[in-house]
Amino acid sequence: MTQRERMQRTIAHELPDRTPAVLAGRPEMDRALLEWYGVSTMSEVHQILGTDGWGGVGVGLDWGDYWQRCNGTREGDWPGAGRPYIWHDRDTYEDEWGVVRRVGSDEKYVQWVDGPLSAADSVEAANLPGPERLVVPPNLADIVQDQKSRGMWVSAGVTQPFKQAWELCGMQRLFSAYLLERDFLEELYDRLYALGTAILTTCTAAGVDMVSVGGDIAMQDRVIVGPRLWREVDKPRLAAMIAACKRINPGVHVFIHSDGKLDDIMPDLIEIGFDITDPIQPECMDPFEIKRLYGDRIVLHGCGSLQKVLPYGTIEDVRRHVVDLIQGCGYNGGLVLRVSNAIGFDVPVANVVTFFETARDYDLSSLRS
Description:
Layout: H1 3-11, E1 21-22, H2 27-37, H3 42-49, E2 55-56, E3 60-61, H4 66-69, E4 86-87, E5 92-94, E6 100-103, E7 110-114, E8 134-135, H5 140-149, E9 154-159, H6 161-169, H7 171-180, H8 182-205, E10 210-214, E11 218-219, E12 222-223, H9 227-248, E13 253-257, H10 266-271, E14 276-278, H11 287-294, E15 299-304, H12 309-312, H13 315-329, E16 335-339, H14 349-361
């Protein structure tokens, strides 16, 4: 099967030829896998492991003179390395949204420093793009069709407005706005959702298989702002964005990524149209219980333990983890295996190899008996 056929079977809750698996790692892990297999490209690693990289398309945004004002790049393994930014000093940089971050001393991670709305009285203080600033490739539909013809499952996505908002405002300001500055918050969200809706509907009209919304709205033990506030502010806007895509193509699939514990709002997410949920972080939610409760309505995407089994387990622990997930969550399709976040430099490469080779080699015909 092609990756496209495999995803179509899986989403239809039918058994494919093998369980789809998605490999996403930090650059350090990519280098470790290249060395392990003695190959020179990640395409070769994906081919060996049978990991299904998706096709994807997007639209650009007109950022005015931002790119002319950029004054350098910096290489490394930190998120965002290698692209132009406005550098304030050796470690501190500003992106096109006006968000300021600092590269950590170990050059592995970045720290949020400030955003254009952290102390602003008005949303207008930020240079927020609207739908009028979309830059759409004139041949977008042709690009989508070409990827489909090559057996790809084609997606398009936007950042979760909650995540974009806290980066613009800072966590403290955003949380305060939910309680004390509702007009400010709703104006900000109206702007961010208008942009996200324009992007996703444009890509839906071009024929993508799936649209996605990515960015954490939960932490280890709860929804970050709590179910009540999320339902008041976020849910209706997400519902309207999904509905706009569904009006164009009722069959388009809708993917959400959020780490953490989503149990309290899982029925709400399904109600408004999400049918692929990632990553079902097993330290926060029980994948087997999620499958039992909602497995006829959603695809479980992820489920691999990045906090326990992958970094600390033995090879046999990893192998058993994968087999348990396939048998307990993929018995009628509806499972795409992925480690629950980008695989870090501290995970033994042998465990990563075992995770994906076990998924590749597991005979799904045993689940039909």
